[in-house]
Design goal:
With about 220 residues, the protein is an alpha/beta fold. Helices cover about 50% and strands about 10% of the residues. The chain has a 6-stranded parallel sheet, sandwiched between helices. It is globular. The two termini are about 30 Å apart. InterPro entries: CheY-like_superfamily, NreC/VraR/RcsB-like_REC, Sig_transdc_resp-reg_C-effctor, Sig_transdc_resp-reg_receiver, Tscrpt_reg_LuxR_C, WalR-like. It comes from Streptomyces melanogenes. Keywords: DNA-binding, Phosphoprotein.
Length: about 220
């Protein structure tokens, strides 16, 4: 999404003052804040009704934990980007959020500028993590890939990717953002997104988490 004004954002947090402040800051930065919610079930209902591009989500919610909200909404709409905004920097919380489908994780100690930049980058498809957490997540991808699920006996042959799709996938596996990949390959950000979407379709994967795991299983991060 090249124009920030077109990005629809929904803010989910059980603390009204914090929720309102975040929504106000994002609206002031030019985002279209289409809804807010204060608990898990309400978040699921409202997100399904307004279909935001980015969900800014707290993990500690009444009624339904944030990771479950994320899992349900991303499962129903893989195009949804989820940026977790949490007070917890615990590694277990970060990994659980990523496994549930979140594409980013920011601590609540972040500045307003860091938050607005994180939402913009999340909308563009980039993984966004508070410094120090990106390496943790990539390490977890590698751990998961070291114990892949056994293939079914009748599993069809893997689809063929183009050379450029494979090149983009290799850089995704190395943890580069879409912007960095575009600069490395001297192509546009939109072209990188198109290659990723085509690759997801060919491999029948749903999000960047699954894509990175697949790439690491194939050893592309070591090439």
């Amino acid at each position: 999404m090249s124009e920030q004004q077109t990005v629809k954002v929904m803010v989910v947090d059980d603390h009204p003052m914090w929720r309102d402040a975040v929504a106000r800051d994002l609206a002031a930065a030019g985002f279209d804040v289409v809804a807010t919610a204060g608990d898990g079930p309400q978040a699921v209902r409202r997100a399904q009704a307004v279909t935001p591009d980015v969900l800014v989500l707290d993990l500690n919610l009444p009624g339904m934990p944030g990771v479950q909200v994320c899992k349900e909404l991303v499962g129903a709409n893989p195009a949804l980007r989820v940026l977790v905004l949490s007070a917890s920097g615990e590694h277990a919380d970060v990994l659980e959020a990523v496994k549930s489908g979140a594409t980013g994780y920011l601590l609540k100690s972040a500045s307003t500028e860091e938050l607005t930049d994180a939402v913009r980058r999340t909308a563009a498809g980039d993984p966004v993590f508070t410094p120090g957490l990106a390496g943790l997540v990539l390490g977890e991808y590698r751990r998961l890939a070291s114990d892949p699920a056994p293939a079914a006996a009748d599993e069809p042959k893997a689809p063929q990717l183009t050379d450029r799709e494979t090149e983009v996938l290799r850089l995704v596996a190395k943890g580069l953002s879409y912007k960095q990949i575009a600069e490395r390959l001297v192509i546009s950000h939109r072209t990188v997104q198109n290659h990723v979407q085509n690759t997801l379709g060919k491999l029948q994967l749903h999000n960047r988490v699954e894509l990175v795991r697949y790439a690491i299983e194939q050893g592309l991060d070591e090439v």
